[in-house]
Design brief:
With 448 residues, the chain is an all-alpha fold. The protein folds into 2 domains: 177 residues, Vanadium-containing Chloroperoxidase, domain 2, CATH 1.10.606.20; 260 residues, Vanadium-containing Chloroperoxidase, domain 2 (Orthogonal Bundle), CATH 1.10.606. Helix content is 52%, strand content 1%. Strands 1-2 form a two-stranded antiparallel sheet.
Length: 448
């Protein structure tokens, strides 16, 4: 199927965009895009982004902006490597890219630098401190490229192309329906249905995120989990026993489980990095550990966050279809434990399925598809909060721990987490089948 899809793309590509042959820069590509360790320019930008997350309160997990930044990054360099292909024509609604540059003196790193800077400016337009950091980072990277031997002309040509790519991606982003994702929503009322939770009892967020355009066509089709356990207040019912498991686990106060819950809290409160930022931090570690080139890093970055954003869309579509109540509501209202509190704050959206489980397992699954599932790594995301690092033998371990952390934190039932694992894996598998990054179509081979 992928081979046929690629042939169609090649035919389509011959009738769109620039009609001039792209200059042969194979040697430049090898040294500029495939050099081991070339992803450092990307990880430097990612560290700027993590700083921005900690200092910017955005009512999401940042996966949307990461996904669009990933597309802009990848598209800004993909034309420089003959082994990779554009996502234009593959992504939902993103059908054309800017005309390819004709200059033979061209710096692809400068293109990536400009694309990241421009998308940063768009997503953080109202944050003066972050914008200053972005300007400084962009200029620092440009100076470094010139110091490495790239001409001013090459850097300027690259920057101009990266800017055009970023603006095209930004224009595309404005049509995904995200501006309506937080529209007013009237919660349905009835036994077992979601109610705003303590301590703030705020209205549920992103009720229409599930209606947003996915990055990959069909990525969330047929992935919605089956209906949750039937609600009941009867102490002998499966529902009561499911909630009681959350309650009894909270009373154990197990040090390891408590630490895991706190490590993956990722609440958007200007102290943590949110779910998207946590996996961005993991990716920084992986890129350095595997000494990735720039083109490899761009591919993994785009693939990871495209997947996570589509997983978030699929998850929230299911959440607001079922509107199941959270553990804290049941425990206080039906178990009559009015003073009980969850270890971590319950996010303001319905229970089923568990978002951390969906999104984190989608991340783990797509990384396993791209890099193989034998990559051991250490997650030291919250060293700045004095949390001990967590060591994982593979991506799946990390995805499962992220999901289970929500049970340990008292904010999700186990069936919600298991349903989330399944949905996240299914969405990632759909994306793996639906996107072709390399022309030899080896995305599922586990080879870099």
């Amino acid at each position: 199927m992928k081979t046929l899809f690629f042939v169609i793309l090649v035919i389509a590509g011959s009738t769109s965009g620039s009609t001039m042959p792209f200059p042969d820069r194979t040697a430049g590509s090898e040294t500029g895009l495939k050099s081991p360790g070339g992803s450092k320019i990307l990880t430097d930008w990612m560290n700027v982004h993590l700083t921005a997350i900690r200092n910017s309160k955005i009512p999401s997990h940042h996966t949307r902006q990461l996904a669009y930044m990933g597309v802009a990054l990848y598209e800004s360099v993909v034309a420089g490597d003959p082994d990779y292909q554009s996502l234009a024509g593959q992504l939902n609604g993103y059908n054309t890219s800017p005309e390819l540059p004709r200059e033979t003196d061209f710096c692809w790193q400068a293109s990536a630098n400009a694309a990241l800077a421009e998308t940063f400016r768009y997503f953080y337009a109202d944050n003066a401190v972050t914008l200053q950091r972005v300007d400084s980072m962009e200029q620092t990277c440009r100076r470094q490229l010139i110091n490495k031997g790239f001409s001013m002309k090459a850097v300027s040509a690259g920057a101009q192309y990266g800017l055009l790519v970023a603006r095209a991606v930004i224009d595309w982003s404005k049509t995904d329906g995200d501006d309506k994702s937080g529209a007013p929503y009237v919660l349905p009322k009835g036994p077992g249905l979601y109610e705003p939770t303590p301590p703030a009892f705020i209205s549920p967020i992103l009720p229409f995120l599930g209606n947003c355009r996915t990055f990959v066509r069909g990525s969330i089709d047929n992935t919605s989990p089956p209906p949750p356990v039937s609600f009941s207040g009867d102490q002998q019912s499966p529902f009561y026993k499911m909630v009681d498991e959350v309650y009894r686990t909270s009373l154990q106060n197990d040090p390891e489980k408590v630490a895991t819950a706190l490590f993956w809290d990722d609440f958007p409160d200007r102290r943590t990095l949110t779910g998207g930022g946590h996996w961005e931090s993991i990716l920084i570690t992986i890129m350095g550990q595997l000494n990735m080139s720039l083109i490899e890093g761009a591919r993994v970055y785009a693939g990871l966050f495209i997947t996570m954003q589509d997983a978030a869309i699929g998850c929230f579509k299911a959440k607001y279809s079922y509107n199941l109540l959270r553990p804290v509501t049941y425990i206080q209202k039906y178990m009559h434990k009015s003073d009980w509190k969850s270890l971590i704050v319950t996010p303001p959206h319905p229970e089923y399925p568990a978002a951390h489980a969906v999104v984190s397992m989608s991340a783990a699954t797509i990384l396993a598809h791209i890099l193989g599932n034998e990559v051991a790594f250490t997650d030291n995301t919250y060293a700045y909060r004095q949390y001990p690092a967590h060591r994982f033998n593979n991506f799946t371990e990390a995805g499962r721990e992220a999901g289970m952390s929500r049970f340990y934190g008292g904010i999700h039932y186990l069936p919600s987490i298991e349903a989330g694992f399944t949905q996240g894996e299914m969405i990632a598998n759909n994306i793996d089948k639906g996107l072709v990054f390399t022309k030899d179509d080896n995305m599922s081979s586990g080879k870099r």
